[in-house]
Amino acid sequence: MSEAATFFLGAVAVLATPGPTNTLLATSGAISGFRRSLPLLGGELGGYLLAIVVLLSLVGPIVAAMPAFGLVLRIVVCLYLLYLAAMLWRQSGLPIADARPIGPLRVFVTTLLNPKAIIFAFTLLPLGQSDGLVAALPRLGALSVLIVLIGTCWIAAGSSLQRGYHGIAKPRVGYRAGAVALVLVAALVSGNAIGMAWS
């Protein structure tokens, strides 16, 4: 299999896997509808690109020199996911009229802390010692297209769930489902961190 095909299949697999960002996109699709949720894609794209650039240029050398920093980074991500899950669950208890829609800023911050960015930076977009960010630009461009396309699919999935229930599915169901999904992702991240600590 060619290097380009490996990159494409790997990127699609990672982006399509349920995670904190996809949970928010699908939840927003179910609550606010397809069209109103589309601006969230800008937050997702910006969050991924900023995270990847920071990981490649700044965090990579630090993790290589101090492996404990990678453990601390995963713990911080886990705590944020639990905080986000608690916020979604709390909003599920509010009256429907008071439930706030998910905004681009929340998606941006969540994506910025998304563990998937680590996979992109250190697995699918590896740079040699002498390479700079310019060498990663072609793949970053292709990845940006995939991020928008697959993110749109997650919004559409949430929106279709709402239509499938003919309006019976209440926003609180979407918030609580999203909260549970985020707790599961946090458990996976913490399990990985524990594995790093014991290795």
Task: Walk me through this protein's architecture.
This protein has 199 residues and is mostly helical. The protein has one domain. It is 79% helix and 0% strand. The chain has 9 helices and no strands. The chain has helices at 3-16, 20-32, 34-37, 40-65, 67-92, 104-112, 116-124, 137-164, 171-198. Helix 2 (20-32) packs across helix 8, helix 4 (40-65) crosses helix 8 (137-164) and helix 5 packs antiparallel against helix 9 (171-198).
Please outline what is shown here:
By secondary structure, this protein is mainly alpha-helical. Helix content is 79%, strand content 0%.
Annotation keywords:
199 residues; mainly alpha; 9 helices; 0% strand; globular
Tell me the span between the first and last alpha carbons.
32 Å
> Strand-residue fraction?
under 5%
Principal-axis shape equals globular
Low-confidence runs: 165-169
